[in-house]
Amino acid sequence: MEPHLKDALEIRDFAVKNNGMFNDSIPLIASENIMSPLAMEMLLTDFGHRYAEGLPHKRYYQGNYFVDLMEEKVTDLGKKLFNCPQVDPRPVSGTNANMAVIFGLTKPAETITAPDLSGGGHISAARFGALGFRGLDIRNYPYDNETMTIDPDGAAKVIKDAKPKVALFGQSVFLFPAPLMELRDTFQEVGCKVWYDAAHVLGLIAGKKFQDPLREGADVVTGSTHKTLPGPQHGIVLGNTDDETWKKVQRGVFPGVLSNHHLNTMAALGVTLAETMDFGQEYASKIIENAKAMAEELHALGIRVLGEKRGFTQSHTIVADVSGFGRGKRVSERLESCNIILNKNLLPADNNKNSMDPSGIRIGTQEITRIGFGKSEARRVAQIIHRAISTDVSEEEIKREVKELKSDFTEIKYCYGHHKAYEYISLFK
Prior knowledge:
With 429 residues, this protein is an alpha/beta fold. The protein has helices at 5-23, 37-42, 65-82, 94-105, 130-133, 152-162, 180-190, 202-206, 243-257, 263-300, 327-337, 366-370, 375-390, 395-406, and strands at residues 26-27, 54-55, 58-59, 86-88, 111-114, 137-140, 143-144, 149-150, 166-169, 193-197, 220-226, 230-239, 304-305, 317-321, 340-341, 343-345, 360-364.
């Protein structure tokens, strides 16, 4: 035996066991999903070995004939799905797409307005994230803890006072639409560019079940493509802006923040965009229905679900204050040991104090919806969560309940073809 084959097979074994773990678990991470069989197939192709710097037909490498055709097709699908004139599918992640916009539209020391972390903002918008590393002067919007969204009157005042180069909207805790329509006059008065980070809600926007930021005043929209849009770990930028601004964004993509742009994941993204055109509206509706049902059940069971005044959520995300059950860290770890996978999360009341031991948890319904869960199963998940964190029932007993519930949901839905969820397929001979 080759001396290090055992190491390679050990890594393979980790992958097999990871598939098995998720097969027996209820996946509720709000930033994850699973791909369709046709999209997954793209990851195994020769696209994964190749380079294609630049834009189609303007490459720095030879051998890109089919790459160019694929990239043009993906771009066209993006324009049709999101009804926009400009699409760049090259970013390799949502944060990479964010960095491209930052590099394209701002210079160090310029001012940008953005959501605060405790108000659901993404880490790339923090002073220790991509905005801070660009050397930008970051001004945060005030957040309304009762309505769980950016306070539009307060945001208008911040924008008028700061006169930012760019106004950023979009969150990692994204329960309700951002107040773009309410702020349109303010954007025009100040003359700033408007950037919307749709990483979490991109699939809901594609399914026409959330706000439409490009029609509500956004110049550019960025997103990761593996959350409510159930594709590969990749990124995308959408535009509805003037040519000069778009050229700056594209220069921010390349050569700004990437070289090659991971052609196999771009191909998988293209498949996902096509599937979303056929299945996306129904899928988005079911995601939101399940989130509302689960939130209502958690609330009825005595768990403090935020956003109550507005019906808890209009997206895939639920946020709950579990400080009465041991805070977010303890609760998320207890649930993980019971095969319920979600994450601890800062709440507005935490005021950025300790992201490793916050008072809350975050739940997403997009992956359980992808494998066929409906409202009754979403309510059942809420009951299992409550039982796991409020009683001394054994982890093994909860695991049995989880496995029994999950056993009836084995196929990936809302896609072309049929495939078992979490099945490990090996090409190794």
